[in-house]
Amino acid sequence: MIAALNADRLGRAASARERLQALSGREREILALVGAGLSNAEIGRRLFLVGGTVKAYVSAVLTQLGVRNRVQAAVLAFQAGLVDDDLT
Asked: What is the pLDDT of residue 16?
């Protein structure tokens, strides 16, 4: 049972990493911060970007990943191992 769960988790992680390959480095950086739970304003302050630019990046990331919202994007970032405890 545990082996099957681990295999499933590894499969989801590989699939998530594959989906992230379409993103640019900056888009992956934005996604990691979304995955860490930061708001657009917090991301903007951290990366020295204006709110509109962050919003555009987040929108592009959601579209490229084929997800409907930030929560789905955050789950994907977590599955791919993109979310780091040091980001918060």
From this structure: 74
CATH class of the region 2-87: alpha beta
Per-residue pLDDT at 50: 97
Q: Within 10 A of 81 (CB to CB), how many other CB atoms are there?
A: 12
Listed by start position, the domains of the chain span 2-87
Q: Are 83 and 36 in contact (CB under 8 A)?
A: yes
Question: Alpha-carbon distance 73 to 69, whole Å?
Answer: 6
Query: What would the 3-class secondary structure string for 26-74 be?
Result: HHHHHHHHHHCCCCHHHHHHHHCCCHHHHHHHHHHHHHHHCCCCHHHHH
pLDDT at residue 52, rounded to an integer: 97
